[in-house]
Amino acid sequence: MKDVLTPTQAAQKVKDGMAVMVGGFMAVGSPNRVIDALVEEKVKELTLIVNDTGFPDQGVGKMVAADQLQKVIVSHIGTNKITGEKMNNKEIEVELVPQGTLAEQIRAGGSGLGGVLTPTGVGTVVQEGKRVINVDGQDFLLATPLRADVALLKAHKADRAGNLVFRRAARNFNPLMATAAELVIVEVDEILETGSLDPDEVVTPGIFVDYLVRGEVQDNG
Amino acid sequence: MDKQEKRNLIARRVASEFKDGDVVNLGIGMPTLVANFLDSNKQVILQSENGFLGVGPAPEPGQEDPDVVNAGGQPVTILTGGACFDSATSFGIIRGGHVDATVLGTLEVDEEGNLANWMVPGKLVPGMGGAMDLVVGAKKVIIATEHCTKKGEPKILKKCRLPLTATKEVDLIVTELAVIEVTLSGLLLREVAEHSSLEEVQEKTEAELIIPEEVGVLK
Asked: Residue A76 carries which DSSP code?
């Protein structure tokens, strides 16, 4: 049985200076209640690992606007002007990573791999500082594993054993990040009794999950 | 020709490149328009890199599902037979050669098939998102772009000056003036728009074009 936390209790697990992974793609599939609580708790100097920085008023964009980040490892910041401004003012360090490479770095971090070889970025600035490894005549870049102290995720349904089911495009980075952090907190629309989910339906097994948080949908119901 | 007419011309021409059964990823902006011109007699399966296959048209107003958006964040639908997956699977599909074609806009493209479409140093740094993976992984890379920049300067160059998205990956360039194929010997002019001429296309292209005996009409 996984404990169900309030958004504030969840946010209080995140300490200053931690590396935090947050699920979501342009704020779809982001744990919005936990993010709101994190902004209220004023946790700071975080390293954020996330696909994109959302919008100034949506998703992790709120954490950017609230000056909570020291560094972001991210594939896209174009939908949130504030990230770009803070990057130019050297208030936030931004490490841009191709989206597929970011996904594989997280997957590697969660599955005990020493890294992944990808053709993406060969011959571009992404190659700078990376090891180039030639396999059978083709150059690849070594993408090293990424892990975090905490992953803050969003799922559609969970049972009390922590098994997760996602919905549509809200899945994105969530199942990957569930495997790659010391502490995994998942905001869900619906928390069901254990046994309500068919084992074949489960996308992320409950062993990866530490805590659940009730999402907005259930709150309104 | 106004901007919308140019965009529609480009999108319609790009759409005609696909074969029945192709898996296609359309980039944000003008490439997304291509979906409006797909031949209904062919099944073209659209992939959205945020995690599904079977992208359908925009929903009726009021029918939007917040969890069903394309990679540009616009509400779309998922067609019958569609499938959802996580980002590692999505980019496995992309890099693994399971996407037949990708359509992207660009800032610059050159005669070697290099393209630059993800940053302007000191000005605009949106990030590469999935673009670098798409151009490396897709079997065919189609650039859909207006022929020149807003200032009227060529976008089709001898050598890209901006930081590259990928090297030697572009296969076809479709603009409102011409269709140009990237070959090992350079840029081969395939078609010239009805409203344009060989001279205009070459004048607005920095790279030297190879002109075959027969040049088609882009309309």
From this structure: B
- Quote the DSSP letter at residue A219: H
Over the stretch A135-185, which tens digit does the pLDDT of each residue have?
999 999 999 999 999 999 999 999 999 999 999 999 999 999 999 999 999
Q: Exposure of B65 by Cβ count < 10 A (0-12 exposed, 13-18 middle, 19+ buried)?
A: middle
User: What is the ipTM, given to two decimal places?
Assistant: 0.96
Say whether A106 sits in a helix, a strand or coil: helix
A:133-192 residues touching chain B, CB 8 A cutoff: 156, 166-176
Q: The domain spanning residue A55 has which CATH number?
A: 3.40.1080.10
User: What fold, for B3-214?
Assistant: Glutaconate Coenzyme A-transferase (3.40.1080)
Q: Report the gap between the CA of B49 and the closest CA in chain A (Å).
A: 9
Check if B191 is active-site: no
Alpha helices in chain A (DSSP H): 7-12, 32-41, 61-65, 81-88, 99-110, 174-177, 216-220
B-facing residues of A in 97-126 (CB < 8 A) are 98-104, 106-107, 118-126
